[in-house]
Amino acid sequence: MSLPLSRRALGVLGVAALLSACSTSPLGRNQLAFYSDDELAQMGKQSFSQYEQQLPTVGGAQARYVQCVADAITAQVPASTGIGKWQVKLFKDDTANAFALPGGYIGVNTGLLKVATNQDQLAAVIGHEVGHVLAHHANERVSTQAATQTGLSVLQSAAGLQGAGGEQVMGLLGAGAQYGVILPFSRKQESEADLVGLDLMADAGFDPRASLKLWQNMAANSQGEPPAWMSTHPSNDQRMSGLKNRLDEAVPRYEQAKAAGRRPNCKA
Fold it and tell me: 129, 140, 167, 192: which is the annotated catalytic residue?
């Protein structure tokens, strides 16, 4: 039985809208993307502001150290992203957590500094989180949620970020662990962030081989219960294998960065 014309028209329009909302990740994977960069940046700004209201920030030598590593990483972010300046904050919290948000916002918890024990390991974490931003994973997650969950107004929630809806948006953007909204990235997204982040840290002059030691530290620090950063970024053999395979490309990039004078010297 054929559909009435109006329903067929709506179906065609719906398919057209989905097709027009497709984008491509840095590694060539098709993605759903309903929202503009400006809309995502506004969500990121609101989420970061909310995070700042919930946790105290830390200054001094530790904050300067985190800023130094983040500055070196973000200096390698292509200008085409439209993010001219990244805001970086160190939050006082014992969980080993970090995040980056659309619009240029990076948060690191003090607990992470006990696990990422040198600048290269910290660069692996920050590079990975910035990789999520560059790969448009927040747009993909928010768009998918808006398309599949009836009644959720993502933009309305992002405007105030109050209540369960706002916390859910923060979780989708990647900053929800503080609120108990653990929304893991998919394995495909994780793999993309790993590889994009590895290239970023190498181009910035950080040793990409430190990423493997970071994951060993994460596992040793878990004591049976994974820290928040591992809960939202699950470690597995596939991840380690992917990182190792990428080193054949990342290590030469690291050597080229050093030859070009990019030699970060960040100290806590």
Answer: 129
Q: Give the burial class of 267: count Cβ atoms within 10 A of its Cβ; 0-12 exposed, 13-18 middle, 19 or more buried.
A: exposed
Q: How far apart are CA 217 and CA 235, in angstroms?
A: 11
3-state secondary structure of 158: helix
Query: Do 109 and 97 touch, CB atoms closer than 8 A?
Result: yes
Take residue 1 and report the two structure tokens written for it: 């039985």
Q: Which residues, including other chains, have CB under 8 Å from residue 185's CB and lie 6 or more apart?
A: 132, 137, 141, 174, 193, 232, 233
DSSP code of 184?
Answer: P
H or E, element range at 73: helix 60-74
Q: Is 129 a catalytic residue?
A: yes
Category of 224 on φ-ψ map: left (φ > 0), alpha (ψ -120 to 50) or beta: left
User: CB neighbours of 178 closer than 8 A, spacing ≥ 6?
Assistant: 51, 54, 55, 93, 97
**153 three-class SS:** coil
pLDDT reading at 4 higher than 60: no
End-to-end CA distance of the chain: 70
pTM summary value: 0.76
- Cβ neighbors of 1 (< 8 A, separation 6 or more) are none
Please give the pLDDT value at position 11.
35
Mean pLDDT for all residues in the chain: 77
